[in-house]
Amino acid sequence: MQRVTSSTVADLFDVAGTRMLEQAAAATLPPHTLMQRAGLAVARLAMAWAPHARAVWIACGPGNNGGDGLEAAAQLQQRGFAPVVTWLGDADRTPPDARASLERARAAGVAFAESPPATWDLAIDALLGIGASRAPDGAMARWLASMHAGAAPVLSVDVPSGLDADTGRLTADPMPPRAHATARICLSLLTLKPGLFTAQGRDAAGEVWLDDLGCDASGAKPAARLAGAPPLHARLHSSHKGSYGDVAIIGGAPGMAGAALLAASAALHAGAGRVFAGLLDGRAALDASQPELMLRDPASLDLSQMTAVVGCGGGAAICALLPRVLSTARHAVIDADALNAIAQDAALKLLLEARGRRAQPTVLTPHPLEAARLLDTDTAEVQADRPHAAQRLADRFGSTVVLKGSGTVIAAPGERPSINLSGNARLASAGTGDALAGMVGAAMASGLPAPAAAREAVWHHGHLADQWPADLPLTASALARGGAR
Ligand SMILES: NC(=O)C1=CN([C@@H]2O[C@H](COP(=O)(O)OP(=O)(O)OC[C@H]3O[C@@H](n4cnc5c(N)ncnc54)[C@H](O)[C@@H]3O)[C@@H](O)[C@H]2O)[C@@H](O)CC1
Ligand SMILES: Nc1ncnc2c1ncn2[C@@H]1O[C@H](COP(=O)(O)OP(=O)(O)O)[C@@H](O)[C@H]1O
Ligand SMILES: [K+]
C-alpha cells in the first residue's frame, strides 16, 4: 500500500484499462482472491487511519464495490471492531465475488442495519466504484450526503461514490465543500484512476492511497500519468548566462503592465539567463526593485533566438504582435489574452498550427475558460473531461498544453497526458497564472523540450504554494520571486 503525494510517479488507468487488468489478474488467481485482498487492504487502512474508531459505518452498494466493503466488515469484525453495515444489494442479483463476501461478513457476525447508525467515528463508502453508471439517487444519495455532512472521517473504497473515475467529474454533488474540512481518504484498488486527481476529484477523494492487490499493471495501456517531482538540474561551472537562454515577455497593455512584470519576475527568479520586458504600455516603468529586467519596445525584439512569453496582460493590443511572435519566436509560451486573440481569429489559428507543423516548441497555458474558447465549446464541457480537453487542444494545435486548475493537466501531441499534483487552492488568486507563464518560459529557455518544461514549471509553481507558510498570504508577486520570504 502506498500513499500518493505530489512527488509520486505513477501510471493512471481508466475504467476500461482497470477492467482489463482486473480480468487478467482474476484469471490467474483462485476465486474471490482479489476481493479478499481488497477488503483486507480497506480494513488495514481504516485501522491505521482511525485506530480509535469505535463505531464504524460501512455503506455498501449492490456490486463488487459493496463486496469490498462487506469483506472489510468481516475483517474488521474479526479484529475486534464492531462495524455496522448498511447494504443496498439484492441477494438475487449480487455478483459472485460480492456474494462470497456477504456470506463471510454474515459468518463473522457483522451487524447489518436498514439505515445508518445514529453516530459513527468512521464512515466507509463502498457504495459505487468503477461500475457506477448513473448519478446516485434515493437511499444511496441520502447516505452519501449524511456521510459527507458528518464530522467523522470518510474512507472511500476505490473511488468516492458519485465521482467519475475517468474524468473527476462529480455526477451528483453529495460532497459540498465543508467549512470544518472533515478528513477524506480514498484507497484506490488495483490501479490509480485519473479522476481522483483532477477537476472535483481531489476534493472528493482527499488523501489517496493505492493498493495494487499484488497485481502487475504492465498489461494495460495507461490513460494518463502522474509525472511526479522533476529532476534537479545541476548547473555546470563552465556555464554562463547565455547557457540559460533569453526570455522576452510580451504583454502588459496600459493598465495591465503588472501581469507582464509578474511573468518577467518569475522567469528571472526561475533561472532565465536574461529577461526582456516588452511592454505594450509604452509609458510603463520597470519595477526599480528588479533592475535585472530589461525594458524594450516589443517591436524591437529579435525573437528568433528567444523564448517569447506572450499574452500576460496583453489586452486587445496583443493581436497586432501575434503574427510576428507566432512566425518568428524560437520558443513560445502563449497565455491569457494571446489565447483569447487566437481563439477569435482564424488566421492566427493557422499560424499557431504552422508552428506545430514546423515543430517549433510552443506551450499554451489556458485556464478552463480560455481552453473552452480555443475549442469553441464551454467551460463545463472542458471541466467534464479535462485530460481529453487538454489532449484535443494539444493535437489540434501541435503544441504542449497546460490546462490549469485543480489537477493541472499537461498534454502534448503523441504523449499520454500527465496530471500535476503539487499546488493547492491558495493559488486561486490574481496573477499566479502570469507567474506560471514566466516559469514555463524560463524552463524552455534553458533548453528543456516543451512538454518537460511545462511539467517541471507547473510542478515547481505548485510546490511553492504547498510550501507556503500558513500564516503568510500567498501573493503572485512573492510567488514570482520564488517564495514567501
Ligand atoms: N471483482 C473483483 O474481484 C474485484 C472488484 N473490485 C471492486 O469492484 C468494483 C467494481 O465492481 P462492479 O463492477 O460490480 O461495480 P460497482 O460495484 O462499482 O457498481 C456496479 C453496481 O452498482 C449499480 N449501480 C451503478 N450505478 C448506480 C447508481 N447510481 N445507483 C445505484 N446503483 C448503481 C450497478 O447496477 C451494479 O449493480 C471496483 O470499483 C472495486 O471496488 C476490486 O475489489 C478488485 C477486485
Ligand atoms: N484550486 C486550485 N488548486 C490548484 N491550483 C490552482 C487552483 N486554482 C488556481 N490554481 C492555479 O493558479 C493559477 C491561476 O492561473 P490563472 O487562472 O491564469 O490566473 P491569473 O490569470 O489570475 O494569473 C494556475 O496555475 C492554476 O492552475
Ligand atoms: K466507493
Automatic annotation (TrEMBL):
Does NAD show up as a keyword for this record? yes
Cofactors needed by this protein, per the record, are:
K(+); Mg(2+)
Reaction catalyzed: (6S)-NADHX + ADP = AMP + phosphate + NADH + H(+); (6R)-NADHX = (6S)-NADHX; (6R)-NADPHX = (6S)-NADPHX; (6S)-NADPHX + ADP = AMP + phosphate + NADPH + H(+)
Judging by the UniProt lineage, the source's domain of life is Bacteria
Please list the residues that bind AMP: K404, G405, S406, G407, T408, G433
Its Enzyme Commission number(s) read: 4.2.1.136, 5.1.99.6
Q: Does the keyword NADP apply?
A: yes
Q: Where does K(+) bind?
A: N65, D125, S161
Relay the cofactor remark from the entry: Binds 1 potassium ion per subunit.
Where in the numbering of this chain does the YjeF N-terminal domain appear?
18-221
**List of residues binding (6S)-NADPHX:** 64-68, 129-135, 158, 259, 313, 367, 434
Which HAMAP family does the record match to this protein?
NADHX_dehydratase (MF_01965), NADHX_epimerase (MF_01966)
Q: Which PANTHER family match?
A: ATP-DEPENDENT (S)-NAD(P)H-HYDRATE DEHYDRATASE, ATP-DEPENDENT (S)-NAD(P)H-HYDRATE DEHYDRATASE FAMILY MEMBER
Q: What is this protein called?
A: Bifunctional NAD(P)H-hydrate repair enzyme
Species: Variovorax robiniae
